[in-house]
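Entry type: protein chain
Record version: 2
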Amino acid sequence: MRRSVISARKFLAFVAISTVGIAARADEAPPGEARPSVVADAPLLPKDWLRTVEIIPKTAIGVREEEAEAYFRVLDFLNGVTEAQLRDEELRFRRNRIAAYSRRIEEIYEQERVQDPQGAELKREKRREQAETFRADPFTYPLVIDAFNRPSECHGEVVSFRGHVRKVTKYPPTENDYGIDDLYELWLFDEEGRGMPVVVVVRELPQGFPVNLREKDVIDGVSVRGYLFKMYAYRGQEQLHAVPLILAKTVSWAPVVPPAAPSMPPWGYGLAIAITLLLLVLIVRGRRRDPRLQELRERLAPPDANPFNNLENDAP
């Protein structure tokens, strides 16, 4: 995908490629067959646009030539969709996934109670409470887990992730019929992502968003809402990996402002106060007159030491 849409002819067919994603949590059932949506509303994005897209990569790394038309068509489509429409669409899909999660609770319970009836009952109650929390606020549901473990059920759906970015690349795409010029590829690490990135492609970035990152640079406070296009295959250090590829118009960025550095360390303020109090004590003590010392000074001083002492005797 970088710099051009990669042709499948440039690669040997893979014997097999596994989706290396996030390990399902204890409350997740193994991926099963996709169930029909529990929400009747039609999605914004026509699903037939994605019929050429290989959701689980089998023959090529990145985006295949056969997928290029759908790739650019979705990016162009996003220009005409409002953020409110995307949010409503995501809410519909999240409620769908929460309903599926609730069904899996009972399926898992039936499997677990064979080995440990008491433990299975406790786990089921905990999962039911969790499902109630998700239903109360669907945006708390960890959608990233489904994106990795059930990509076929998330294909062409609106998803959102938030976390930090460690990689930003600007590149010109291949020739297309939609007037799309520069694109940006970001590697976003979701808070629930267990250290696996989500690849995000956008047409624009927020003003001031860093592009030329050094190896250890991190951009915090980044979130994205867009369409899950496919699982994106790339070569890691030792093997092939596949992670969700999200197409979006842009990302949201709330830079984390570090607290202002104090002019001195915290202990410095205490030391300054102590020194100030000590100086005040010394000044006060210095101004106090001891009567005995004053008498001694007068006895030792010669009569003419202070001309104002004998003003009457010197008067004409």
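Comment: The mean pLDDT is 80.
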